[in-house]
Amino acid sequence: MRLAGTYHPIPFLLKRLKHYLPSVSIVNALWLDFDKQIYTTNEKKPLNDYLKVKAQNIRAKCHVLKWSQHSDFFERSTTEKKQLSIEDEDAMNVLSLYFTSPIDGQKDVIMITFPSHVFLKNLNTHFKGVTSHEKHILGSILSSVLLADYEKAIREREFLKQVEDIHQKQVLKIKQLTEDLKSTEQLYSSAIRNILNDLKLKLEVNLGKEFIFSKEVAFKLAKERLSIHAIEEAVKNAIYLAYNLNLFKQKIEVTEDYFQLEKLKEEPIHSSSTFVVAHQKVLELLDRYEAAAIQVSEKGWAINGKNMASQLHPPVTPPAITDAVKKNKSKITYLLQQYPDKWSNIRKYIKPISALDERIDNARAVS
Description:
Elements: H1 9-20, E1 26-32, E2 38-40, H2 49-59, E3 65-68, H3 86-91, E4 94-100, E5 107-113, E6 117-120, E7 123-126, H4 132-207, E8 210-213, H5 215-224, H6 228-245, E9 251-254, H7 262-265, H8 271-298, H9 305-310, H10 318-327, H11 329-338, H12 344-349, H13 351-366
Parallel strand pairs: 8-9
Antiparallel strand pairs: 1-2, 1-5, 3-4, 4-5, 6-7
Helix pairs in contact: 1-4, 4-5, 4-6, 11-13
């Protein structure tokens, strides 16, 4: 079903007239459409400039309704300029109804030609038997009924325009959110590629192979929304799996098939926080050793394991420092790589730590 608001009000009324006046077959109309062109029911195309001037003269009139003898808008009228006779009045079977255009405020017009016989007062009577008073009543009733439909079409159109505007705003908002999401995904994928590259470089040094990630890997990891710890574990597992299955290749391509993410998805939420806490303890240990080394230096002593051990709170033995470094070797190596500007004293003077730092420097030189 087509809504009234999808029509211009005049074409909508022409359809409604078939319901109100089924016996009327001749109807003409003149209106300014939404494209700012003037149309009539007899012309499918907009009026030419000559007829447009005549049409605007008709539309400029302030009538509400008018009875006449003419069913053509552009037929020259002579009866309006002289005193009407009874015969003239009987011949006036054409009713013109005027409606204020929502576009320019002038008049749109519908012209209804009544047949010689009409159905009035429950009698099938000849139209010339209808008095001027009865014509006025008939015209007023039709004008009121059609005006209600005319205004209904206008209101519905305004409502549909509002709905369309709201829908368009929603479409634009969804489009903006989609673009924002796409941008976020690109940033997230870029961060994942950085993680992939960092881990790849480290494992290439340890395993003596060159690893190449396929383009789909970063997308696969980004799609899964994994924690950083889970991503690192997935990458390490994938590289080791690819290494074991391609032992005699120097360049190994790591495709998405090597990534087994099901178990990582099932990990408890606190697993990544446990990883951070474990590194935090080693971070604090290195900070304590560095603080003790600074105290030794301020006292003018040589920085070594013995003197540094005496400045710790509580004091420990030098072998205890060596044992702590060996016990946390992998975490200390990781932190030394992540923070190259920290712990300058213990990197240089504490042998177990300086040995780890030297390995990192050698690995970087080789890569």
